[in-house]
Amino acid sequence: MALVDSVLDQIDPEIVYIKSLETPKGGEAFKDAAIKVYESYRAMVETGRKFSMITEESSESDLPIIEEEYDVKSQKYLNSFKAFETAQVEYAKETGYKIEHHRFLLSGK
Q: Which of 55, 80, 89, 102 could staple 40 via S-S, CB 3.0–4.6 A?
């Protein structure tokens, strides 16, 4: 659990930092997408913490419930990352930046 707490301790300040940044003209969607990536990652980590709480006294139904919840949170994280990638590319197009190799491993391309 200490590792999970450590990860969460790192995520929260990043969310606060991104929210505090001045948003450049046309960068709202990009900034919002970045925040959603961190928030969905945080939710996934919090759900993953539940695996460490399973004991011999836990019900047989506990593990499948946690697995399903974790799968949902993981998919939300992947979707938020893909949305972030799209927002990044759109922001770059609007502002005249050129992105090379903009396809991340999570995009499957």
A: 80
Residue 104 is given by DSSP the state -
- pLDDT for 32-89, tens place per residue? 999 999 999 999 999 999 998 999 999 999 999 999 999 999 999 999 999 999 999 8
Q: How far apart are alpha carbons 30 and 97 in whole angstroms? A: 14
Using a cut of 0.85, tell me whether the model's pTM lies above it. Answer: no
CA distance 54 to 9: 23
Tokens 């990352």 label which residue?
Answer: 81
Neighbours of 48 (CB within 10 A): 16
* Cβ neighbour number for residue 65 with a 10 Å cutoff: 11
Q: Which of 67, 4, 66, 68 is nearest to 41 (CA)?
A: 4
DSSP state of 23: P
